[in-house]
Amino acid sequence: MEVRLSQVDAARHLNVSRSVVPRLWNQYQTGASVSRRHVSGLPRTTLAGDLFITLSAQRRRISVQQLVPDPSVAPGRKISASVVRRRLHNSGLYARRPVVCVPLNRRHLSWAREHRLEQETR
Predict the structure, then answer these.
(1) What pLDDT score was predicted for residue 1?
(2) Which residues 6+ apart lie within 8 Å of 63 measured at CB?
(3) How does pLDDT run across 18-27, given as a tens digit for each residue?
(4) Separation of alpha carbons 83 and 15, rounded Å
(5) What are the CA-CA distances from residue 116 to residues 71, 107, 108 (Å)?
(6) CA quadruple 23, 24, 28, 31: dihedral, nearest 10
């Protein structure tokens, strides 16, 4: 079955850039391979792997540096700290420093009550 679409319509239908359609068509016409091109770098993590990274960070409350060398995070794969950090940011998790609070004693609390009463009477 042959369907006649313009290159723009084909790109829209396949949800790819308009430049992809003529490039693939030319490769097909010349008999060259139309398989995916090799890209540099490590393979991308899977969605399940991304979820596992997020859940591991949330449940164990550990830092990125502790999460990277853990073999359970990406079994059989090398994964960088920047990848882990990016996956956590995409999930809404960011590095935070714990808040250092001054312990309050009775004198602090009584001072706060007095000043609150002053503010209310103004």
Answers:
(1) 54
(2) 95
(3) 888 888 888 8
(4) 26
(5) 54, 14, 12
(6) 70
